[in-house]
UniProtKB/TrEMBL annotation:
It comes from Daedalea quercina L-15889. GO terms for cellular component: cytosol; nucleus. This is Ubiquitin carboxyl-terminal hydrolase. SMART domains: ZnF_UBP. Transmembrane segments: none annotated. The lineage of its organism: Eukaryota, Fungi, Dikarya, Basidiomycota, Agaricomycotina. SUPFAM superfamilies: Cysteine proteinases, RING/U-box. It comes from the Eukaryota. One of its GO terms (molecular function) is cysteine-type deubiquitinase activity. Gene3D superfamilies: Cysteine proteinases, Zinc/RING finger domain, C3HC4 (zinc finger). Its EC number is 3.4.19.12. It catalyses: Thiol-dependent hydrolysis of ester, thioester, amide, peptide and isopeptide bonds formed by the C-terminal Gly of ubiquitin (a 76-residue protein attached to proteins as an intracellular targeting signal). Belongs to the peptidase C19 family. Residues 13-112 form the UBP-type domain.
Amino acid sequence: MDRQEVLEKVRALGSWNTRRLHYASSPSKRRKLSIPICGACQSTLRPFACLHCSFFGCWPEGHIKEHLEETGHNFCVDVKTGFIYCNACSDFVYDSAAARTFAIAAFSAEDIIGGRKKSRQPFEPWKPNQKETVILETAISMPCQARRGLLNLGNTCFMNAILQSFIVNPLLRDYFLSDKHNHLLCKNKDCTCCEMDKLFSEMYSENATPYGPASFLATTWRASAELSGYAQQDAHEFFMAALNHIHSTSRGSTKLSCICIIHSTFAGLLQSDVKCGRCSNVTTASDPMLDISLELQDKGSGGHAGHELTLASCLRRFTQPEKLGPNEYSCAKCGKTSHDTNKRLSLRKLPPVLSFQFKRFEHKSGDKTAAQKIEAPVRFPSNINMAPYTSLGMAVREQEGNNGAPDSASSSVPGPGSMYEYELFAVVCHEGQINNGHYTCFARSQDEWYRFDDDKMSHSSLRACLNSLSQAYMCFYVKKHLDYKPYVTPSYKVAREAEAVKEKQREREKEAARMREVEDALLATVY
């Protein structure tokens, strides 16, 4: 097997996959793009390409493995991810040259499709310097599975489910495992960031027995009185409280343009466009968001929507124009009210991690004691393209005469399609009724799915996760390709360098004050 031929095939697959993602929203372009199909069953579900010949086979039915066994070939590659499978090892293997070739091909295709005028910052693989090499040589190898149950400390399943979603969140994981916040050095009292650091240390330790996050629970009680006690709590309420506590105790936390880990992970911008029915003036406002709460019922109706509920249909309802009452809006241009005033929401800025909450708990007539759970099944995908729900996407569709409808598949948005692609990595489920329910969590760890039920952990599958239609309460998606600004120093480095300068200044001031005290003491002894 010639290595150059293998790398050329990997390069072609990387370029094809990027074009596939970009052309997915355009039927005319999609028809022109050939799709690899299984040579045995003609399926297009997760195709693999043999690196020894031109055969394509599907993974779910095992046809690619059968081909490798029959022909004696050893290697195949996932056409969508570039991961290489070795039949002799019965496992996926890592080849740095192949991974680099796949990534560069994908980036190059994105530049061509998006019409990028300025070249990207050249890709440079990490090479440890002398100091880092010494650290790596003396480092103790630790397991990196992070698959560990959490003990129920008394109706704390709501907390356990959210914490499991934090553990598999790639941005939170990389932040806390890279020692950005060390609880041994932090001097803050009741610091939730310290609790997160302890949690990640425990989950990534060699201990496989269930862990009891007692200190995390106690810190939450002291920070949020409404969550204290052993009563049943709402997982989404705890999620929002935890985000606020981590934000307030993390480095880089500011009131404006916050660069803390929470806002760098979950923060987006929600745009509100209000169109006056009299003069057609459009008033635009932007509000920060950390998650998106989706209705499962049509507003103004007592029942569920008349069609099958899906995440896409909930997002279409979320972004569709809504009529405002005559007393709800007064136009700033004409100064009058109108019965035909419309308000429409859209996503102006997409966050790296999208959190969706399905509003399954409703309170009738403002009476909290008369609450009930909505058991309507909601279908959600493993991958979702958010371009139709962005402010830019809606503006493009309005120019094309589609009235900004999110389901206009023929429209396109500027830039590569990968900018809007998200993939599922965790789902928080609620089982039972509102007064005696229980929270569990499906989470993806190293491309394998697991179900966490407090201290019990079991191997699961993506199919089982997607079939939790009536129990799904919160869904978490992460961007497939994170945005970055080339040739720009990361914000956390800027903040860290600024903090180091301030620390040196404080030390100089302390030293100057100490020297003044010494001089005063000497003068006092002389006189």
